[in-house]
Amino acid sequence: MFIGAHISASDGLYNAPANAKRQGCECYQFFSRPPQGGPVKKLTPEDIKKFKAANQKLSYQNFYVHAPYFINLASNNNRIYYGSISVLREELERGSLLGVKYLMTHLGSTKDLGEKKSLQKVVAGLEKILTDYQGSTQLLIEISSGSGAIIGDTFEEVSEIIKNCKLKIENCLGVCFDTAHAFESGYDLRDAKAVQKTFSQFDKTIGLKKLKLIHLNDSKTALGSHSDRHEDLGQGQIGLSGFSALIQYLQKKKLDIDLILETPTDSRRKKDITLLKSLRDN
Where are the domains positioned within the chain? Predict the structure, then answer.
């Protein structure tokens, strides 16, 4: 169980490992392109070489990419829909060149088509993205908070999407569990009993074998608020007792899953990483 955070790579992808090390990260996550859209720098052989060399120098084996925010695999606008498919496939290919383990993405919103047609369109989009894909980076669906009709806020919805994808590649889709999003979707995580109940439900509905990565964020808003508001650890509605219980649960189940912080206060992140390490190691 490595512990890390989302790290800026705006000054060059090859600088991300050094940025991560300064925060005390054992693993890290980054954007490989501008998250809001815009021009994307093509990866050159030199870029790839420098990125891999920096990771090797600093002993990083696990690093992850977050897809840009504009992805919508349920859009009724073909430019957005097919653009999302193209970007996610390209990010998988870029991730494979860089040695990235996972690419996680939100799926989009049901506001254009309604729930049933949106889920069908998402499944079709995922099949297009992954058909004939031979790379090493795995695509993860990130649990959402349900804010603004965003898809993927219930375990049942995520399970339906994965099960309906007719793909020949085994384990081509996994899940990234965001604690703030799940809590805001109504899954309690505030103590050991709540953590046990939530992940038992996850296991029954999706399967723990599909759980590949956890975004560890406190929630600024209440259980079931559907608001997507991250908070620093221990400062929100989940609280440190919930995160301690989650780490103990993962250890008890012997789940080798990394924890990535996406908390809002940059100046606190190193302290929070140290805190999580102590919860894990003691």
Answer: 3-281
Note if the pTM is more than 0.85: yes
CA–CA gap between residue 46 and residue 35 (Å, rounded): 23
Nearest to 179 by CA among 227, 242, 126: 242
Q: Could you tell me the CATH superfamily of domain 3-281?
A: Divalent-metal-dependent TIM barrel enzymes (3.20.20.150)
Sign of CA dihedral 202, 1, 24, 93: negative
What's the pLDDT score for residue 150?
Answer: 86
- In angstroms, the CA 156 to CA 119 distance is 12
What are 170-179's pLDDT values in tens digits?
568 999 999 9
- Return the DSSP state at 183: H
Dihedral sign for Cα 269, 214, 264, 89, please.
positive
Q: Which helix H or strand E contains 97, and what residues bound it?
A: helix 78-98
Is residue 199 a contact partner of residue 177, using CB atoms and an 8 Å limit?
no
Question: How far apart, in Å, do the first and last CA atoms of the chain sit?
Answer: 14
Pick the closest to residue 3 from 272, 258, 213, 279 (CA basis).
258
3-state secondary structure of 60: coil
